[in-house]
Amino acid sequence: MRFMFIVKTDHQGPPSPTLMEAMGKLVDREIKAGRLIDSGGLMPMATGAQLRLKAGRLDFIDGPFVEAKEVVGGYAVFELPGREEAIASMQEFMQLHKDLMPEWDGVCEMRAFMPTGQECG
Q1: Can you state the percent helix, strand and coil of the chain, rounding each to 5?
Q2: N- or C-end of the chain: fewer Cβ atoms within 10 A?
């Protein structure tokens, strides 16, 4: 099964060098094991844009987006046997944050990809 982890935080700035090093080792291990398909951190909201559709109207908005309390700071896509393994992987990732950057607050949301050929809804 394929899973996406979405990391949300209101923390300003990049992770600490210690956390970055530990995450680099974790990423390397997961890539070599064939579990991690893709991952990345995202640039600040000021560099982004949104296109909103509401009531039949498209509106373009340049970042930053002042109404955002938590922002998506990064993501990872994994190929794992099932939900239990995804939760274990997510827990290991968040434990790194807890241990190496205890002032960081955030959420790691795990979502399964819909199997190819299935309809949304």
Answers
A1: 30, 35, 35
A2: C
| pTM for this prediction | 0.83
Distances (CA, A) of 53 to 47, 49, 57, 59, 65: 20, 13, 5, 7, 16
Angle at 15 between CA 14 and CA 21, to 5 degrees: 125
Give, for all 121 residues of the chain, the pLDDT tens digit.
Answer: 999 999 998 887 788 999 999 999 999 999 999 999 999 988 888 888 989 899 999 999 888 776 667 788 899 999 999 999 999 999 999 999 999 999 999 999 999 999 877 766 5
Structure tokens, 25: 């080792």
Neighbours of 67 (CB within 10 A): 5
Q: What residues have CB less than 8 Å from 40, skipping those under 6 apart?
A: 74, 75
Domains of the chain are 2-43+71-112 (3.30.70.100)
